[in-house]
Amino acid sequence: MASKPLFDGDIVIAGGGLAGMTLALALEQAGLTVAVVDALEMSDQLAPEFDGRASALAYTSWRMFEALGVAEHLSEHAQRIEHILVCDGRPYGGTRPGGPGPHSLHFDREEISPGPDGKPLGWMAENRHSRQALVKALKAKPGITIIAPARADHYEHRTGGIDLVLDDGRRLCGKLLVACDGKFSRVRKQAKIRTAGWRYGQKGLVATVRHTEPHNGTAYEYFLPSGPFAILPLPDNRASLVWTEPDRVADALKDASDPVFQEELEARFGDFLGEVKPECPRFTYPLSLSFSERFLDDRIAFVGDAARGIHPLAGQGFNLGIRDAAALAEVCGEAKRVGLDIGAPTTLQRYADWRRFDSATLALGTDVFNRLFSNDIEPLRQIRGLGLSLVDKIPPARRFFMRQAGGETGDPPRLLKGERLDAA
């Protein structure tokens, strides 16, 4: 006789990272029973380990966090983004400091949300704090079953449903399986779904630094010959660095002595925020582009990095996963309310159609920007610098890009507008 499954309900989520937990909360609010499986323990205590990563949350993503009850746990650890400055970085070395160059594109939240009570362009939060806030919100929802730590092994179809089988033989039964298991998705591999993409030959070196001058909520994204260099504001005069270099250089910087790293940091960072000092270990992550040939399979939906992975220069990776979650939750919630099969091809195709254009646009845009700016060809430097300055002088263009980055263009799902899915 088969043993009783660990879960028998609507949806099983393979992968309890940031996107997977956000999706679980959205689906639960839409009236679905959900199970989340993850290899890591889901503790609502702050994890002692720190991998250096922080994520930018677009203002529509923050609205969704407010609607899901996550923002109340995260707000004290999040930093408002009031301005974004994009520019070619100044040459470094010799007697010239690093830092922002003469041609720039300035985004100011006053243009789209003026006044002292205006909403920021986005928020920055360290991933460890975001995870803690999501786990706290998850544990307050009785409609969500957490299976962790546990490892998913494979899935099996059955009439009217799909089961996720763990590596110890235990089973979770649902009508739909959602793969949130990252860019090397085990579910996608079993489904034999191909991906297109390439390695950039670059790594992102991530570190947190403290500086003596206030950042005033400004995020800096400037481009050096080796790749983008992002300075992203965090609370308490700190910043998260995403420093792109060719693989070998990034590895050398990660392993460099503290004095050598400090010298290289100052050469690129400049002195516009005063003295700067690293505050945590350094980490490197290989950068690549991957795009799944489809976002669905038989009773399977792909969300977050399992659907696509993009270059981090625009800080949109986690936001894409949040938008996936908002769209899938709305589609599945509506299907259940009218008595349709939430795992049917017609239901999942609506989700895939909703998310594919936004995903492809951002993937292509980040790839083009990285290739255009990651070089030191003087005529090209002049042209792209003038291009930045030109767009900076056209207010409608600036506002369009701010709303595009904020996730407000097109037909955003209800959660991204701040509307609860369980509201009448």
Which key terms come to mind for this protein?
alpha/beta; 33% helix; nine-stranded mixed beta sheet; six-stranded mixed beta sheet; globular; 424 residues; single chain; FAD/NAD(P)-binding domain; 22 strands
Strand segment tally: 22
Round the mean pLDDT to the nearest integer and report it: 89
Here the CATH topology equals: FAD/NAD(P)-binding domain
Shape: globular
CATH superfamily: FAD/NAD(P)-binding domain
Helical run tally: 11
Domain tally: 1
The fraction of residues assigned to DSSP E strands is: 25-35%
Report the end-to-end length measured between terminal Cα atoms: 44 Å
Which stretches are poorly predicted, pLDDT < 50 over at least 5 residues?
Answer: 91-97
Estimated radius of gyration? 22 Å
The name of the CATH architecture is 3-Layer(bba) Sandwich
Q: Indicate the percent of residues in helices.
A: 25-40%
Helix and strand composition category: alpha/beta
* Sheet of most strands: 9 strands, mixed
Can you identify the CATH class? Alpha Beta
